[in-house]
Amino acid sequence: MKKPGNGSSSGKKGNTRKPKSTNGAGDSSSRLDPAIARWLVAAVAEFPASRSSTIPMLQSAQTALGYLPGDAMRAIARHLGVAPAVVEGVASFYAQFRFNAPGKHRVTVCSGTACYVRGSGKLMEDIQADLHIAPGGTTADGSISLESVSCFGACALAPVVVLDDKVLRQQTSASMKKVIQELSAGPPKGRTRSARSAPAARGARK
Amino acid sequence: MTRLAIRADLEALRAQLTASFDPHQRRIFVCMGTGCKACGGDEILAGFDKALKRAKLQDQVEVVMTGCRGFCENGALVAVRPPGTLYCRVTASDIPEIVEKTVARGEVIERLLYEMPGVIPGVPGRRISAEEAIPFYQHQMRVVLGMNDRIDPTRIEDYIQEGGYAGLAKALFDMTPDQIVDEVQRAGLRGRGGGGFPTGQKWKFCRAAPGDVKYVICNADEGDPGAFMDRSLLEGNPHAVLEGMAIGALAIGSSHGYVYIRAEYPLAIERLRIAIDQMRERGLLGENILGSGFSFDIIIKEGAGAFVCGEETALIASIEGRRGMPMARPPFPAVKGLFGKPTNINNVETWGNISHIITGGADAYAARGTEGSKGTKIFSLVGKVNNTGLVEVPMGMQLRQLVYEIGGGVKGGRALKAVQSGGPSGGCIPASMMHLPIDYESLAKAGSIMGSGGLVVMDETTCMVDLARYFVSFTEKESCGKCAPCRLGTRQMRMILDDICEGRGTEQSIAQLESLGEAVCKGSLCGLGQTAPNPVLTTIKYFRDEYLAHVREKRCPAGVCQPLFVATCSNGCPAEVDIPAYLSLVAESREEEALLSHMERNPFPSVCARVCPHPCESRCRREAVDAPVAIRSVKRFMVDSSPPVSISVMERPAEERRRTAVVGAGPAGLTAAYFLRRLGHEVTVYEAMAEPGGMLRYGIPSYRLPHHELERDIKRITDIGVKIVCNATVGKKLSIARLHKDYDAVFVGSGAWSDVSMGVPGEDARGVASGIEFLKKAAQGGAPRLKGDAVVVGGGNTAMDAARTALRLGAGSVTVAYRRTREEMPVQPEEITEALEEGVKLEFLVAPVEVIGDGKGGAAALKFQRMRMGDFDDSGRRRPIPIEGDFIEIPAANIIRAIGQKPVIPAGGPPVSKRGTVNVDQFSLATEYEGIFAGGDAVLGPATAVEAIAHGRRAAEAIEHYLHPGKHVHFPWNAPRALDTAFDPAAPASALARRETRKLIPIKRRESFDEVELALSARAARAEAGRCLRCDFGKTIVSREDE
């Protein structure tokens, strides 16, 4: 099970999140993107070259770079002395990792049970309609990425949306429409029925 | 921070902290859990510092940030102690007032106190000042969470002052490792992460495993959606968990610990980091702890978002830097775990219990809980419950106590449907099993599991099929893919559930789900797959009817599965009237078309416009904006102002036309007759009374439903050729057997005319009457004027109707006596209001015990036993309990009992249940006698008109299928929707407020039987109809005609 190279082909079905392959371009660190190079210097110093550093290094790269460029993963593989596929295989397994640059703002809708029972399913649909993107996508202007998470553990505030790192409690389609409007700093592209018919936001104090 | 080199240093520090602590000093505790932070906790914390400085109180008052107090929905929470006042939903703007009034002068600010959920619309609930008096806290037993609300989680001193690390010191110096293991084993602690494996035993295995390097791991990968106890404990009291880990490491012989925590919990990670750093600085972590020679250190590992990593072997793989895939056991981690070494993994809450066991002793610990489940358990109580949050209760508490007493009942006073426990691995426990004690065994027996402690409360608007789909799609996504049963099985199950939710399911689909579910349980490698089918299997087990409604009728009773209904209002209407259609037609002044649309589902528009309890309005989505559309008032205008309409009858060849008979000309019978006639059949309705209408005529007083309005509805039915024979009692001369012989099919729609006696001495006195008989006489015009006072016993519609009728018939004073309280009264709230306006008195919490005679054979008074409200029953209502020796007498010459009604089934009719209702197949309404169908009160017991009407149409459709088996006729009322009203989805919604109808002034009402409710004007009605948000717009729904 530890055979390197098996990583990304086995396991999780539906390789929808498969990292982009860049065919070995940028193999040498001299041609690395400066941001990646900067991160790499610090990371190599911080993390020991043991396989248990894989996930912490991936997390550190994503924190620094916003996502996981192929070059960063290959750099991790070199540092750990394993095949790049091993690192990619681990990365593609976990929901936390992104392989595309995220938008300026991240809107994360909680789809945990408590949120779902209180209408996060419909909320997600309406946000998708407003942004014209599916979960995992980023708006064409690169301003907003939409994501879903299985539970934030803020269940008593359901339904919860996390905007960047701020937890927004008891959201409705209408209140999210406002949030999105403010983020994209301009009127939304098209008004949609679903959001119009949705209940308006109520004050935090009921 | 000075290092604590020996045990005495720890005790000295504690003594010093205690000595310098002034319990009388006023402190402000600001909750800084994730929930309250989301509500502005940071600003509030900073705000207090500033406001205190401004008031020059900063030296006398301390501001303490605490961890999560669990009452998250009311955040941000601020407590001021003394006196112990808890403020809810505090915002930064409230701070000056709190400082000025409460902090400086000890005054309580009423508006910031917790408000009990109001049960009666418009009546606010009681406000409570003291923290411990709030029911949410009152019934809890906070042991593990005990310190959360009074210590600052970023200050190790707070923890030490409260007795922290005494357990570790005791374990280090007073106990041997074997004694520690023994103590934990004797305490009976079981794993809190879900499995419930005895913790002591687990430790014993790991201790016994050979090897010099061993690991302890804290599993904080709280992946169960809907659960957040681990997060709150780590945020609020990280030291409790870390102390437990140190004790465990000592017992097992390990010197390396890991906390594997979800990356989604940034605040918990931060608090853990701070706690670990402080432990190191104090010498409670690292080399030679407290000079004992024991060394131990802890590393934090952040998870990366994979639910399966909650499984121990997958978690180990993840720490090792691999894909988080489980491995077959044995070898168990206790023998071969992290990096191949013996490893002990426990959940956060389990670790949080350890120090309590060591300091308090196993016996004291085991005194709480049940035989097989010891101690307390933390639950996250969420979903459709009033008080959502984190609660800790002793094992064995009944579910209903948790939901109703602590949780404050279901939101909006709706009916509880089920409680889901154990997350995606657990199951749904139906409302009928709320007496279940919460412990490992009872939950397993019910088909669910304790899991990590998520309890999601669901009401009638949660669809159980959709919920099962939700959980399975979750496990499908989270399945690691290693073994086929889980990877493919969850996918297949999800696809079948998609079919059912989208109207493509058949009964075969349900059977497939069951067999597939069993296969996945048996065939999967790890706990994720083995338990993944639980939500599906338990919902099928307890809510099969809901599945059947989806597959047989393409109907989603909860109004969730979008392709199965037009709009939630229509879905909430038992008769499924297309409400957005007629509202939008009225808005365009097209009343005639609106009425015709209504007639496609319900032939009693006049009646329903007056007496329907309008379940549609409680499902109206406009409620979230301001208030629901006044649907019933618009209907009233529609039917009052529409010209007469003509209804077409299907042309059918003679050989397809059949003869059908209907027993009872009430709402069920006449509706069945109307729809059967529209299908071209001959229909004869037999009615025992002199006039048709049944309960609508004789049971509902004319001030609510004028007879001429009822007759308008009946005329539309007779106009299409339905024959009504009055004064013809079925079951006497005209037997059911005869009808059965003479007609091709029979529908029994008799009403609930038989009343239930009080069963008290003296009930046969003159002046004691049955409510329904009293109303019948009054409707026939045969009731005499009443002399003296009247008392009506009961709390339902009949009781309220009888009371208001008695008032109109001249009774002096009229009192309605009910054994529960106003909140439990089944009658519509607006009727209580109207009755009160007219002068009816209400007496609550009394149960009749004796009719006191006047010595001349008449009644003089009714004696009542006073009651009080006791515990909750499964339905969520408190049970009334007699107060010994406390009686009252209400003088009254007229005593009317209205405490229950039963259907009257014609002699020789189809078999009935113990409750006296006809046994039917709930979908076809076919009775046990072939060719005889039944519906309305005969099947339901006393129910509403609209429910009877719904049965009438259902029966007519079933009778058609029975008369022409295998031959499919398209029901004209199910024709595809062709609505051409204008609607601009981009335009802003109407900003108008809900228009209420006006009522006759109370003085005028008492003098006559004139209708009390007045109609809206044309302008008001059209404007009101225009408030509809048109949830139906652009929606296509599944046709029910496809077989």
Structural account:
The complex is a heterodimer of chains A (206) and B (1043). Chain A is of the alpha+beta class and 206 residues long. Chain A has two domains: 15-93, Arc Repressor Mutant, subunit A; 105-196, Glutaredoxin, CATH 3.40.30.10. In chain A, 38% of the residues lie in helices and 9% in strands. Chain A has eight helices and four strands; from the N terminus they run H-H-H-H-E-H-H-E-E-E-H-H. Chain A has helices at 34-46, 54-65, 70-80, 84-93, 113-117, 120-131, 173-184, 193-196, and strands at residues 105-110, 144-149, 161-163, 166-168. Chain A has a four-stranded mixed beta sheet with strand order 2-1-3-4. In chain A, a hairpin with a 2-residue loop joins strand 3 (161-163) and strand 4 (166-168). In chain A, helix 6 (120-131) runs parallel beside helix 7. Chain B has six domains: 25-81 and 85-129, Glutaredoxin (3-Layer(aba) Sandwich); 156-366, Rossmann fold, CATH 3.40.50.11540; 376-563, Roll (Ubiquitin-like (UB roll)), CATH 3.10.20; 571-648 and 997-1043, Orthogonal Bundle (Fumarate Reductase Iron-sulfur Protein, Chain B, domain 2); 657-753 and 903-971, FAD/NAD(P)-binding domain (3-Layer(bba) Sandwich), CATH 3.50.50.60; 756-899, FAD/NAD(P)-binding domain (3-Layer(bba) Sandwich). Chain B is built from 40 helices and 30 strands. The termini of chain B are far apart. The chains are: A alpha+beta (206), B alpha/beta (1043). Chains A and B meet through helix 2, helix 4, helix 5 and strand 4 of A and helix 2, strand 11, strand 15 and helix 18 of B.
